[in-house]
Automatic annotation (TrEMBL):
Record organism: Acetobacter cibinongensis
Gene3D superfamilies: 1.25.40.80, DNA Cyclobutane Dipyrimidine Photolyase, subunit A, domain 3, HUPs
Family membership noted in the UniProt record: Belongs to the DNA photolyase family.
Claim: Nucleotide-binding is one of the keywords in the record: no
Cofactor(s) of this protein: (6R)-5,10-methylene-5,6,7,8-tetrahydrofolate; FAD
Stored Pfam families: DNA_photolyase, FAD_binding_7
Stretches assigned to the Photolyase/cryptochrome alpha/beta domain: 9-134
Key words of the record: Chromophore, FAD, Flavoprotein
InterPro entries reported in the protein's UniProt record: Crypto/Photolyase_FAD-like_sf (IPR036134), Crypto/Photolyase_N_sf (IPR036155), Cryptochr/Photolyase_FAD-bd (IPR005101), Cryptochrome/DNA_photolyase_1 (IPR002081), DNA_photolyase_1_CS_C (IPR018394), DNA_photolyase_N (IPR006050), Rossmann-like_a/b/a_fold (IPR014729)
Protein name as it appears in the record: Deoxyribodipyrimidine photo-lyase
Amino acid sequence: MSTQSPSAPPVLVLFRDDFRLTDNPALHMACTTGQPVVCVYVQDPATRREGAIGWWLDQSRRALAEALTAQGGELLTVEGNTPDIIPELVTLFKADTVLWNRRYDPVGKEQDTALKTTLGLRQITTHSLSGRLLHEPWAVQTGSGQPYKVFTAWWRAARELGAPGRCVPAPSSLTFAAWPAAVKALATKAAAIPAPTLPEGAADAAMDWPCTEADAQDFLKDFVDDNVARYSTERDRPDKDTTSRLSPYLRAGLISARQVWHSVEAAIEKNGAISENAWTFLSELGWRDFAYMQLFYQPTLPTENLRSEFNDMPWHDDAALLKAWQHGQTGYPLVDAGMRQLYQTGWMHNRVRMVVASFLTKHLLTDWRKGEAWFHQRLVDADPAQNAMNWQWCAGTGIDASPWFRIFNPIGQSEKFDPSGAYIRTWVPELRHLPDKLIHTPWKADAALCRQIGLHLGTTYPHPIVELKAARTIALESYKNLPARQKDE
Ligand SMILES: Cc1cc2nc3c(=O)[nH]c(=O)nc-3n(C[C@H](O)[C@H](O)[C@H](O)COP(=O)(O)OP(=O)(O)OC[C@H]3O[C@@H](n4cnc5c(N)ncnc54)[C@H](O)[C@@H]3O)c2cc1C
C-alpha cells in the first residue's frame, strides 16, 4: 500500500541508461520520501545515440514507459539540455528533490555536476546514487590511493571489498504527481522527435533482443540454470553460444550488475561445484567495472591512445580494406562470420570480437578508432567504456593491454574455437557445403569441389584480402620502428 501523499512537493527521478524498476536506487529512494514521484527521461542532444545502440536505448525507454503505465503513471519524456531542462521542470512541478543514479562518462559527469550546482543554489535537495556498477570507480584503489593499471591486481582488491551492496526492490506501488499543462506541452513536443531506427541490415536485432526488464531476468535465469556451470570451458566457443548475452541489458540498465552478481552468488551457495566457472563469469563483470574505472579517470579513453608511443604508428588508411572488414568480405571465414553477425544482429561473440579487432588493427594495420567507431554504430551493447577499453586492449594501445606482438591468426583461432565450422556456416552461408577441414581455409578447396558446391572464389566469396604472414611482418616492423619506442630503449 502506498504511503505517499499526493499533496506534498514531488520528487523528480531521472532515468538515464537505467531503464528498470527493480534495483533502481534513485527510484527506491524517491519512494521512501512518501512524496509523489515524477519519472523523467531527457532527450538530450548531447547524449543522444544513433545506430543500433540508439534504437536499443529507445526500445528500453519505451519498455520502462510501459512498466510505469502499468503502475498507473507515466514516463515524462522531454527534450533539452539536462542542466537547463531539469531546473525548469523543478519550477513547473514545484518539486523539492531531484534524484538520479550516477554516470561516469565525461559528458554525463559534467552535466550532473552542473545540475547539482544549479539546484543546490535554489535549495533543492539532490542525491546521486550508485546503480550502474558493482563498485564505484574510486572505491578500488592501490595502497597509495591511485587507480589500478592492472586488472588482476584491481580484481583482487575488488574481491577483498566483498559482495557489492544489496539490491533494492521495485516499488510495490507508486504515487505519481499530476503534470501541469506546461509540462504536457513539453512532453508533446518531445514525442514529435523521430525515434532512432536500426541501421541498414540490422533487422535481426529486433527479433534477437526482446526488450523488457522481465526479458533481462529470463536471460539471466537461463544462463544461471543452464550455462554458468560450464562458462570457463565454453565461453570462447562462438559455435556453442553459451555466454549470458546480458550485455545489451546491462548496457541499457534493464538489469543491474548487482542483480547479476547476487543471482550468480546464490547459485554458488546452492551448488559449490560451479564455483570456479561462476567466478570466472563474475570476473567479466569485473572487467566491466574496470572499463568504467578507466573512463572515469581517463575521459579520452575512446579517442586517444593510452600508450602515447602509438601516436606515431603509421596506420594505413585504405577505405576498400576497411569496407571489406566492415561487411564481412575479408576472405577469412571467422572474421567474416563475426562481422556479419554484428551487421545483422547488433551483437558479436566476445572471442570473435577479439579476432576481428586484432585482424583490423594488426593485419590491416588500421587505426583502432575506426573499428571502435564501426562497433559503436552497429552494436546493441555499444558502450563508451567497454568498447573503447577493449579496442585499446586488442590494439595494444591501452593499459594492461594485449602486447602488440600478440597477433591472432584468424585461421588458427577458427580451427580452435569453431572446430566444425558451425558458427561460420551460420553467418557465411556461401561456405556451408565445404567439409569441416576446408571451412577455415576455403581457398584450399580444389576446382572440382568448388564447382560441385557452387563456390566461386573471387565471385561468391572473396579471396583473402591480405596475406597473413606478410601482413604480420609489416605490423611487427611498424611497431619496432616507432620513434617514441626507440627513444625509450
Ligand atoms: C573489440 C571489443 C569491443 C567490445 N565492445 C563492447 C561494448 O561496446 N559493450 C559491451 O558490453 N561489451 C563489449 N565488449 C566486451 C564483450 O565482448 C561483451 O561484453 C560480451 O561479448 C557480451 O556478451 P555476453 O553478455 O554474453 O558476455 P558474458 O561472457 O556472459 O559476460 C557477462 C558480462 O560481463 C561483461 N563483459 C564480458 N566481457 C567483457 C570485457 N571483455 N570487457 C568488459 N566487460 C565485459 C559484459 O557486461 C557482459 O554482458 C567488447 C569486446 C571487444 C573485444
